[in-house]
Amino acid sequence: MPRRSLGGREKLRHARANLLDVSEDRANVTAQQLDGTLPFAADQGVQYRGVLGDVQEPPRGWKASLKYFGPGFLTSAAVVGSGELITATALGAQAGFVLLWIVLISTLVKVAIQVEIARWSISTGRASMEGYNDVPPKILGRSWISYIGILMFLQIIIGQGGVIGGAALALSMLAPVGGDPFSLASIGVWLGILIAIAIAVQITNKYSLIEGLATVMVAIVTLLVVFMVFGVQFTPFAWTAADLGEGLLFQIPLGTMGIALAMFGMTGVGAGEITAYSYWCVEKGYARFTGPNDGSDAWVTRARGWMSVMKKDAMLSWAIYTISTVAFYVLGAAILNPQGLVPSGTDMFDVLARIFTDTLGEWTRWIFLIGVALTLFKTAMANIPGFARQVANTLAIFGAFDWRDVNRRNLWLKALVVILPITWGIFYLFIQSPFLMIVLAGIGNAIFLMAIVVATWYLRTTQIGKRVADGKWFTVWLAISSLAVFAVGVLSLIDLF
C-alpha cells in the first residue's frame, strides 16, 4: 500500500528532529576527522542524515557541474575491468560480431535504473539497501529483497574472487614464483601480495590516491585498446562496416546464451554498481546539499538541480565504460574469433594476449599482462569500499548494529575491508578459474537486478515525489530497461537449470 505522504507541518517537525538528531553525529565525525580515524567518506554520519545547514544551491550546466562529479568515476573504476576485459572479449571471440548489440543494450538500459535509485537517495538521504528493505512483502520484519541481498554475498565473493585472482594469475605469468606460473604456490604468493596491498591501502585511507592512479591507468588502457581497434585495420584481421552491421541484427547464435547472459550481468553497471552508486551519491553530498524535504518549492528546485548533476555524472560514466566495452568486444571478434580462440581457464590470458601479440608482436605480451593485472586489481580495489558498505548496511538491517551510529559503522567497514579481499582470495584458490567465477557472478548479477527493478518501481511510486520525477520519455526508458532486465534474468534461470 502506498506510503501516506506527510503534511507540511509534519515534514517541518521531521526536518527539525532530523537536524537535532544529526548534532551528535557531527560531533563524533569532527572528532574522528581530527584524530584521523575516519578512513572512508568524510563526514559520513552527516552524509546519511541530511542537514539543513549544509544546503547548497546546485551548479548549472556541464562546466559548472564538473567539480561535483565523482560517483560516476568510482563506478567507471569498478566497471572497467573484468566485464570488459574478460567477458566482452570472450563473447566477441566465441560469437564474432553477431552479438555486438548486447554490448550496447547492456550498458545503456541499466543506466535508467541506476539514475532512478540515485534520485531516490538524493531526495531521502538514504542509501539503496535501506530502500530495498522498504519493499513489501516483509518476512520477519525485513523485505524479501534484503534476504536476496544476503544470498548475493556469495555472488560478490565469487565475482570479485575471479577479479583479484585474475590479477594474481597475470602477475604469476609475468614473474612466476618457483618456475611454474600456473602453480598454486606461485599464484598464491601473488594473491597474498595483492590482498596485503589492498588491505593496507583501504585501512590507511590512501584509497583516493590509488583511485586517481588507477583511473589514469584505465584511461591509458582504454585509449590503447581503442587505438588497437583501428590499428587492426592495417593487419589481416581488419574488420569492416558489414561486420559491425551484422552485430546490430539482434541475434543470439546457438551456444552463446550463457556467456551472453553473463555479459549482460557483468558489463555496464550491474546490481552491485547500481547499489554502490547510491552510497557514493549520498557521500558525495548530493543529498546533504539538497537538504531534508520540507515540501517547499525551493527544496524541489534544489533537488532537481542536484539530480541533474547526478545524471550528468552517470552519463559521463556510461560513455567511458561503453567505449571500452565495445573496443574489447570488437578486438575479440576481429582477432580471436577467426582463429577459433576463446579465452577460458588458466590459459585465458595467453589467449587474450594474442590480441596484442598477433598484431604488434610477441614483445607486447608483458605489457599486456601488466595492464591486465593493474586493471583487474584496480577493479577489486574500487569494489572493496562499495561492497563493504552494501554488506555492512545489509547486516545492519538484520540487526547486527545501528547503521546511523558512525563509530559502529566505521568499525564494521574497517573489518570488512580486511575480510572481503581475504575471502575473495580463498575462494579463488579453491576454484582457480577467473573466467568461470566471473561468468557465474554475472548470471547472479542479472538475477539480483530483477529484484532491484521491483524496488526501483516501488520507491518511484511511493517515495519519490512527482515534482522531482522526470518526464514520460524517461519513464519509457525505465520501462524498457526493466523489461530487458527481467527478460535476461528469466533466461538466466532457464539457462542455469
Automatic annotation (TrEMBL):
<feature type="transmembrane region" description="Helical">
    <location>
        <begin position="411"/>
        <end position="431"/>
    </location>
</feature>
<keyword id="KW-0472">Membrane</keyword>
<feature type="transmembrane region" description="Helical">
    <location>
        <begin position="68"/>
        <end position="87"/>
    </location>
</feature>
<feature type="transmembrane region" description="Helical">
    <location>
        <begin position="437"/>
        <end position="459"/>
    </location>
</feature>
<feature type="transmembrane region" description="Helical">
    <location>
        <begin position="314"/>
        <end position="336"/>
    </location>
</feature>
<feature type="transmembrane region" description="Helical">
    <location>
        <begin position="471"/>
        <end position="494"/>
    </location>
</feature>
<dbReference type="InterPro" id="IPR001046">
    <property type="entry name" value="NRAMP_fam"/>
</dbReference>
<feature type="transmembrane region" description="Helical">
    <location>
        <begin position="213"/>
        <end position="239"/>
    </location>
</feature>
<dbReference type="Pfam" id="PF01566">
    <property type="entry name" value="Nramp"/>
</dbReference>
<feature type="transmembrane region" description="Helical">
    <location>
        <begin position="363"/>
        <end position="381"/>
    </location>
</feature>
<feature type="transmembrane region" description="Helical">
    <location>
        <begin position="182"/>
        <end position="201"/>
    </location>
</feature>
<keyword id="KW-1133">Transmembrane helix</keyword>
<feature type="transmembrane region" description="Helical">
    <location>
        <begin position="93"/>
        <end position="113"/>
    </location>
</feature>
<protein>
    <submittedName>
        <fullName>Nramp family divalent metal transporter</fullName>
    </submittedName>
</protein>
<keyword id="KW-0812">Transmembrane</keyword>
<feature type="transmembrane region" description="Helical">
    <location>
        <begin position="144"/>
        <end position="170"/>
    </location>
</feature>
